[in-house]
Amino acid sequence: LKVHGSRAAADLARGLPAGAPCQRPHVAGGAPRPSFEEGRRGAAARPAMNGQDQINPFFRAVSRFRQRRFDDCIDICTELLEKNSRDQAVWFLKCRSLTCKQWMDDVEIDEEGVADLLMDENAVAQAPRPGTSLNRPLTKFDAEGGGPSQVVRPVSASGRPLTGFARPGTNRPTTSSAGRDIATAMQGNRPGTSRPLTSMGRLVRLGTASMQHQDGGEFVRLDALDLHKYAQRPAIAKALCDYMLYYARNPRKALELASEATQAVDFKDWWWKARLGKAYYQLGLLRDAEKQFKSSLKDEEMISTHLELCKVYLRLDQPNAALDQYGRAGEKFAGDTHILLGLARTYDMLNALLRGVQFYKRVLQYDSVNAEAIACLASHHFYTDQPEIALRFYRRLLQNGVANAELWNNMGLCCFYSGQYDLTLSCFERALMLADDNNMADVWYNIGQVAIGVGDLGLAYQAFKIAVSVDPNHAESYSNLGVLELRKGNVEQAQSHFHTAMRLGPHLFEPAFNGGLLAFKLGEFQESFELATKALEAYPDHIESKELIKQLKAHFSSL
Prior knowledge:
Helices cover about 60% and strands about 0% of the residues. By secondary structure, the protein is mostly helical.
């Protein structure tokens, strides 16, 4: 029997009003069905069709979008828009595809360029107290929050201890940079292959084929848009705002649209306030961004908004305010790894390394495969004379699928210092197989350190020579080459290597102290005093340099 409800549902599915007469003859339930032979003849009479042709192209585009195959989705949407340029659903899908293709998580990826640092007018204090500014972090490596001294744990070119995980902002220079300017602190190692990042360097977008539309222009002409009209339609407006921020890289237009949309919703939508803050942040209006993020948090507390606000505080050089904001966010969202990582990174930037280690351990309680937390904890244990524990962390990274030259290099060092000499060379062999020109010098330098540890000075000399041949700016290798040349009795060559190391690595105190000690033994007391003072500028707590200066002062007073 035919039920009327199913008839109405079937008609509505075909787009007909309920109860309307069918457009095809209705076959009664008792009518004879076609036989199998008739069905085969009917199938043979129809032309064969491809399975892709039977699928609705818009449905296929949505499927590609869900599969994150954005290029295929954009191509299908472009073909559909050429047939009907006013299809809003297809336009919306292409807009979202273009945005997702260029989208990046800018909550954490934020690198300050040279222009941003040179023309920073947001600093509150020109001479801040240690520990209250990223430009002047803590200098005392005490048991409360510091960690190993600079003798044990090396520092980067900007004067910060190495944390074991490369992230944006690690090259930000400090006031204790011993005469280094911003350009030298942020430049790359190899000459001619890298330069300091300029302002908005990550936000430059080149024209690509996906920008082309049916009339040969851009997909959306932002200058010709009526933003007030689009602000009344929230779904399209939000997609358009993200398109402006992430694809078109036009924060000014995004700011205008977000302002109109915020007024349209009577200032009660947290999402639009957060986008206003993001647009202000990209334009460099940090105080306005802070107001918008705070207003957004009053309407709705979201993790991303908290992280954006903390990023504003860090750009304003207020790490303590960022720590307080991270703490409030951690109370609201207990166990969120992004907040805990933000706390750990901020403590690392302040040189409070032991406090950061506590939060890295908490991260692993909630996310046991977090690569950053594992790498930083491994680095901490290695520099606190616990290579066996560090090796366990590095093996955990290897089990998680991380396989690069840095990991095998660190595992080789851990094996050597934990007494597993049979595995050391095999780890370094794998590191050399995976290394490129950017990290090859570091691998050979560590091979030289291992060779010195086993007493093979010939291998160490060759390894350091290979390191400086791969990277002519490798200051640590020059410093160790100077020591080896001095053992051979080549005093002039040793002095040359020490001066080269000081020129290439002004953040290192070892070549300055070695050069000063050599000058003292040669009777060049004035040069020795200058070099020892330079070593103390790089590392104020170096006991040997202080003793050398004490002896020099005693000698000068006797004259």
